[in-house]
Design brief:
The protein is of the alpha/beta class. The longest helix is centred in the middle third of the chain and has 22 residues. Helix 7 links the parallel strand 5 and strand 6. It has two domains: 191 residues, Nitrogenase molybdenum iron protein domain (Rossmann fold), CATH 3.40.50; 179 residues, Nitrogenase molybdenum iron protein domain (Rossmann fold), CATH 3.40.50.1980.
Length: 382
């Protein structure tokens, strides 16, 4: 818990970082710790993951498509509802060339160079090129394309404000980045400050079931990375901690049945387009275009399968689903609030995650809020 108690202090340092960066506009230190020389003008941007479009929109607003020269198609493939919203608002997104599919291996160096790009924005790790793709990075830099790394995935609650500061610098949107980071810091502190006062003995045990329905075997989870960080920040004890090494892995279903957690949280990868896996396992549907009734019905359907029915919190209605893509977006602070409100309803009686989400869209997104991003098995947030 100590790491989350100092997050506010770390994010306070982000504002100092922004001030320092504005004095040195020709270079930036990215999330890989690299000092990157920036072009005089950034006019042609490649996105290593198009799911970063909402993050760019925080800074670019109505000018979002103006500098996009190419992108991977992961946004439209993994979050078709969210992409449809952006496509409606910015029809020109359909005309931006795609530079691969949904993996680093498919990323086309030749295509990028032909587009005349001057900046590439990559994630430390993810669907597109990462910090380990050294040959690609070197080739881009030799061709005059500056490469910067950001991160909403490995250590999201620490690296989100740092990443937004870097994006603000490279895009010349320092003021916009500072405004967003102040909002982010305030909203995260509303959780971490309260959680710090709750005895750990009062934290509920939680199983985080990643991408429910995607695999025949059970049960995939996240631990030391991605949404695994959200559980602890919200005051929950991740039952996979110490049992599943690394960022993610599988926790045996028999263990969940014999040693049931107090709460069960599934991540939702379903949408109107993708409602079930190839083996016909139901997905939980959340996100853009999904109403609460549809979301709840999909959660009940997805957990009504052999084995899972026997897991006590599912059987007793102490189940929740949350939008899977929270792990890779600056919206992640809203997920932490929603989890905290559900884990500790008495302590967070005044916290309204729905209002925070609405404010995020109203202030920082050029598309409207349309859909629900978490849902519980029961009508009330038990």
């Amino acid at each position: 818990m100590l790491r989350y108690q100092i997050i506010a202090a770390l994010m306070g340092g982000v504002f100092c970082l922004l001030a320092e960066l504005s004095l040195a506009a020709d270079t930036v230190t990215d999330l890989a710790g690299r000092t990157v020389k920036l072009p005089d003008r950034v006019e042609r941007v490649i996105l290593g993951e198009s799911r970063y479009i909402p993050a760019l929109a925080i800074l670019e607003g109505e000018h979002l498509p103006d500098r996009l020269a190419g992108l991977l198609p992961d946004f439209e493939m993994t979050d078709p509802g969210g992409y449809a919203q952006y496509l409606k608002a910015f029809p020109s997104l359909a005309d931006i060339p795609r530079v691969g599919h949904t993996s680093a291996d498919s990323f086309s160096l030749e295509s990028v160079l032909a587009m005349g790009a001057d900046l590439a924005i990559f994630s430390l790790e993810g669907h597109g090129p990462g910090a380990h793709n050294r040959a690609l990075i070197d080739s881009l830099q030799r061709a005059g394309v500056a490469v910067v790394f950001i991160d909403f995935r490995q250590d999201p609650l620490v690296n989100t404000p740092r990443s937004m500061a870097v994006l603000g610098e490279v895009l010349g949107r320092q003021d916009e980045a500072e405004v967003f980071n102040r909002f982010y810091q305030q909203q995260l502190a509303r959780v971490t400050g309260v959680v710090a006062e709750i005895p750990r003995s009062d934290w509920p045990s939680v199983f985080l079931h990643s991408r429910l329905g995607r695999h025949d075997n059970c049960c995939e989870t996240m631990v030391a990375g991605m949404m695994g960080h959200f559980i602890e920040a919200a005051g929950g004890k991740n039952v996979a901690q110490g049992r599943v090494p690394g960022v993610s892995g599988v926790l045996n279903l028999e263990y969940l049945i014999s040693e049931p957690p107090r709460r069960y949280v599934a991540t939702a990868i379903g949408s109107r387009r993708y409602q079930a896996s190839e083996t016909d396992h139901a997905y939980v549907m959340l996100g853009a275009g999904i109403d609460e009734q549809t979301a709840r019905a999909s959660l009940l359907r997805a957990t009504d399968r052999p084995g899972l029915r026997a897991v006590k919190p599912i059987r007793e209605g102490r189940a929740m689903a949350i939008w899977h893509h929270f792990y890779n977006t600056p919206m992640n602070v809203v997920a932490v609030q929603a989890l905290a409100r559900w884990f500790h309803p008495a302590a967070f009686g005044e916290l309204d995650p729905d209002a925070t989400l609405a404010e995020f869209y109203r202030r920082f997104q050029p598309v409207p809020l349309d859909g629900v991003y978490w849902v519980t098995a029961g009508e009330a947030q038990k």
